[in-house]
Write a structure and sequence with these properties.
The complex is a heterodimer of chains A (248) and B (92). Chain A is an all-alpha fold and 248 residues long. Chain A is built from ten helices and no strands. Chain A has a single domain, classed as Up-down Bundle (Ferritin). Chain B is of the alpha+beta class. A three-stranded antiparallel sheet of chain B has the order 2-1-3, covered by helices on one side. The termini of chain B are far apart. Classes of the chains: A mainly alpha (248), B alpha+beta (92).
Chain lengths: 248, 92
């Protein structure tokens, strides 16, 4: 696998696994409207994953987008661990989404400037979707944070629990550095300042307290994941693995 | 969830009137707009959305039907049926 293929897989996997997680809300949303909103977001992310996997597949020339999604094992996935954590209650899902949406907004804004034209175009397309996702999630963070005592306590707890998964957004490993040098990738470290600022803006309106940066989970860039990824993959990959080449 | 009901109106393209398409549940204006967008514009139906709390809609009642609408039945001169429509004119 070439460097750029691996680099794109990281973004593709993050959108794919998050999409799969969100899709678990389908038919279980707190209201019909919210059910559809979460499913819409899940489908947007699946579309982003699809575009990216098609591009990796084209660069690779041998492995199809479906094979990337359905034939790889845990250690060959490079999604951020934050996508794997369980949906929990509605506030947990919203908080996870909010923290990721801001990251994606900033990341895609930088990726738009990539020397690689396909990546740049995919970033532009995704930005429109992400802006809407962020509007949805940040409004809910404010509503729940500045809502009742119970909703405030719950979502503050969600925030505290999820915080340790946000460190991965801003890591720079050898591959990131190389891609940055080649003007293909993004300087993740530089995103942190704006990310903190945007997070704070909404948290202030929501009257929530930002946790201190403490111990941060890490490893996804090397294919190291939480125990939850295996369960996601076994559900996501079950059909194509049990019935290879099954057609719709 | 005991949410307020909002009526949704979609304008399919610039210049046309907004058309009632249905209703949704939402707690506030912003949520109403987003829910309407998610439910009613999934297939590129619109360019503008209005949402209005259902309680603000004033409706006539079936009992009024005769006094409201029957009197116009026999006033044929109110219909512009004596004009020829120019070819190609739309939305009239």
């Amino acid at each position: 696998m070439t460097d750029i293929e691996k680099y794109i897989l990281r973004i593709a996997d993050t959108t794919l696994i998050l999409s799969q997680r969100l899709s678990e809300w389908c038919s279980k949303g707190p209201s019909l409207e919210e059910d559809i909103a979460l499913s819409n977001i899940s489908l947007d992310l699946l579309g982003q994953a699809n575009g990216l996997l098609e591009y990796v597949s084209k660069l690779n020339g041998e492995i199809s987008p479906d094979e990337y999604a359905f034939k790889r094992d845990e250690r060959e996935f490079y999604n951020f661990q934050i996508c794997e954590i369980e949906n929990g209650h509605f506030g947990d899902t919203i908080m996870r989404q909010f923290l990721i949406d801001i990251y994606f907004k900033l990341y895609y804004q930088e990726l738009e400037k990539s020397k690689d034209e396909t990546l740049s175009a995919l970033a532009t397309k995704s930005l429109k979707e992400v802006s809407y996702h962020l509007r949805h999630s940040s409004n809910w963070v404010i509503r729940l944070g500045d809502g009742t005592q119970e909703s405030k306590d719950k979502i503050q707890k969600s925030l505290n629990n999820i915080w340790k998964y946000t460190g991965e957004f801003f890591e720079m490993d050898e591959l990131d550095k190389k891609m940055l040098e080649e003007k293909i990738g993004v300087n993740n470290k530089n995103l942190k300042k704006d990310w903190d600022k945007l997070v704070d803006e909404t948290l202030n309106m929501a009257k929530l307290k930002r946790p201190e940066d403490g111990y941060m989970m890490t490893g996804s860039r090397k294919g190291i994941h939480t125990e939850m990824l295996g369960k996601i993959l076994s559900e996501m990959q079950y059909l194509p693995r049990a019935y290879p080449d099954a057609k719709w | 969830m005991e949410a307020t009901i909002w009526e949704v109106f979609i304008q399919s393209k610039n210049g046309l009137a907004h058309k009632h398409v249905g209703n949704i549940h939402a707690e506030d204006k912003e949520m109403a707009l987003q829910n309407a967008r998610d439910l009613y514009t999934r297939r590129n139906e619109g360019s503008c959305i209005w949402v209005v709390k259902s309680e603000y809609i004033v409706s006539s009642v079936p009992e009024d039907e005769e006094s409201f609408f029957d009197p116009s039945n026999d006033k044929v001169y109110r219909h512009p049926t004596f004009y020829k429509m120019p070819d190609g004119s739309k939305h009239i």
